[in-house]
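Run HupE/UreJ family protein through structure prediction, thanks.
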Amino acid sequence: MYFEMGWQHIVDWEGIDHILFIAALCAIYLLKDWRQVLVLITAFTIGHSITLALSVTNVVHISSSLIEFLIPVTIFITAFFNIIRKQTVPGKVQLNYFFAGFFGLIHGMGFSGYLKSLLGTQTNVVKPLLAFNLGLEFGQIMIVTGVMLLAGIIVNVTRVKQRDWNMFLSSAIFGIAFLMAAERFKELMVK
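Sure, done. The structure for HupE/UreJ family protein is below.
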């Protein structure tokens, strides 16, 4: 039940901010880079699992309106660095691994309200939390697969340069996330 809720939550168009972040993380990669992308997505899952667990167990509490503002900020920062980045240097730790893990902490706080509402008054949260996180990881892999298949078609079939594809996708994600952040900032200032 919680596994299904996890993957459905991440692929839900109502929560497009999560889809945009995952797409921004993998925008610079092609199918041949699937191992690197798997590490990125796992780093994101670890990050959000930590804060999700801390929040669900009431160890950490941060204003939901602040988190809702910070989520699109994480998206446009990731997309912005995709746009300005130079070619990847093999063997060098890339900044996007940091983004995946650290920004996963922020996104985990965003998931926590939803999961808390599902758990209700349950006292044992370990199994539901694990199942929900595995579902989120599965949903993220579905999104990554879609983005990378699209990238493969665009780069390999239409012969668009990989850098041009990255610029297009990252710029679109940056614009959407910037507008989301501006809207949520207004809401944050009203509260």
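The radius of gyration is 17 Å.
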